[in-house]
UniProtKB/TrEMBL annotation:
DNA-binding region coordinates: 55-155
Organism this protein belongs to: Marininema halotolerans
Keyword Transcription regulation: yes
Recorded GO MF terms: DNA binding
Entry protein name: Two-component system, OmpR family, response regulator VicR
Residue intervals of the OmpR/PhoB-type domain: 55-155
SUPFAM superfamilies: C-terminal effector domain of the bipartite response regulators
One biological process term in Gene Ontology: regulation of DNA-templated transcription
Pfam families in the cross-refs: Trans_reg_C (PF00486)
Keywords: DNA-binding, Transcription, Transcription regulation
Taxonomy, superkingdom: Bacteria
């Protein structure tokens, strides 16, 4: 069974789509122009390289998972519990995988806008998280510092080199 039906917008297709939707539960997507179709295709291609999210697990790498429900990191057969603060940091960063998060936005998300937390405390938590998710915490590949800006949580798929243009 298909997960999606994409059709050019055309009123003559509407009765057919209604019938398909009733029988399969799949909602059709109508595309108005070639540009919209190309944009949708690009989004679908990008989603193919998205991290594997299975239930409450986010796969950062084949042997590294972030367990949202149990507040754990699974790495190479070992289980690392997360403190509530470590969990909030991971939850905030994983909500925008591959996108750098400003330091102050991260602090606001974890400790609140009026939270009195120094940057040194954040650095300590980031170091602890790297010890749990990185194979080599001194040379991080998943939890990246963007000096003067903030932090980014990446997945292994975002580390793979792209083909030259």
């Amino acid at each position: 069974m298909s997960d999606m039906i994409i059709l050019a917008e055309n009123l003559q297709h509407f009765p057919i789509c209604e019938e398909i939707s009733k029988k399969s539960g799949v909602k059709p997507i109508f595309i108005q122009s070639r540009q919209h179709f190309e944009a949708l295709l690009n989004l679908l291609r990008e989603s193919e390289s998205a991290p594997v999210v299975s239930g409450d697990l986010i796969e950062l790498a084949p042997d590294i998972q972030f367990d949202l429900r149990r507040h754990l990191i699974h790495r190479q057969g070992n289980v690392y519990p997360l403190s509530s603060t470590e969990f909030k940091i991971m939850q905030s960063l994983s909500s925008q995988l591959g996108i750098p998060c400003q330091t102050m936005d991260l602090i606001d998300a974890v400790w609140g806008v009026h939270g009195h937390i120094g940057l040194d405390s954040l650095y300590v938590y980031i170091r602890r998280l790297r010890e749990k998710i990185e194979n080599n915490p001194s040379r991080p590949q998943l939890l990246i510092t963007h000096h003067g800006f903030g932090y980014e949580l990446r997945t292994l798929s975002s580390l793979e080199p792209t083909a030259p243009h």
